[in-house]
Amino acid sequence: MSAYSFMDVTASFIGPGAVFDLGSGSGSSEEGITVSMKENKNSMKLGIDGEGMNTLLPGTSGQITVNLLETSPVNKKLSLAYNAQSASSASWGKNIIVIRNSASGEVITARGVAFQKLPDRKFAKEGGTTAWIFDCIKIDVVMGEY
């Protein structure tokens, strides 16, 4: 039987004026990092006679959500990068996120990455989490093997 551990996951944020880690050791919350594709890869049309056609769609866009503890120092780094990059379209959407799992060999590379918005802020009885959502023009995934 194989085993999984977030301790094997590294994630890097690289962009104009910013380079830092998002993976294990960055103050990630239990929700961790989520990668979601925006579109289906296939479109199917059926004819009136029951025959059909599949169409391969070219899109590889999606979203990456990085969930951090409210006390993670990465929140400040991301907010500073957001503020700096949102000052000019010349630096907007030029980030790269690379996620690796050293145990399985999985590699996910996202390019054309832009902050979707500043995360919602909540001040409550107990500290919570902060979800950073990134829109990605291209996400390339090579799944690993355990």
Tally of separate domains: 1
CATH class: Mainly Beta
Strand content of the residues, in percent?
A: over 45%
**Mean pLDDT figure:** 95
Structural class comes to mainly beta
Order of helices and strands: EEEEEEHEEE
As a percent range, the share of helical residues equals under 10%
**Strand tally, please?**
9
* Rg estimate, integer Å: 18 Å
Q: Briefly note the CATH topology name.
A: Pnp Oxidase, Chain A
Q: Total helix count?
A: 1
Low-pLDDT stretches are none
Largest beta-sheet details: 7 strands, antiparallel
Question: Overall 3D geometry?
Answer: globular
Oligomer: single chain
User: In angstroms, what separates the terminal alpha carbons?
Assistant: 9 Å
Short descriptors:
single chain, 146 residues, mainly beta, Pnp Oxidase, Chain A, 7-stranded antiparallel beta sheet, two-stranded antiparallel sheet, 1 helix, Phage_KPP10_Orf10, Phage protein
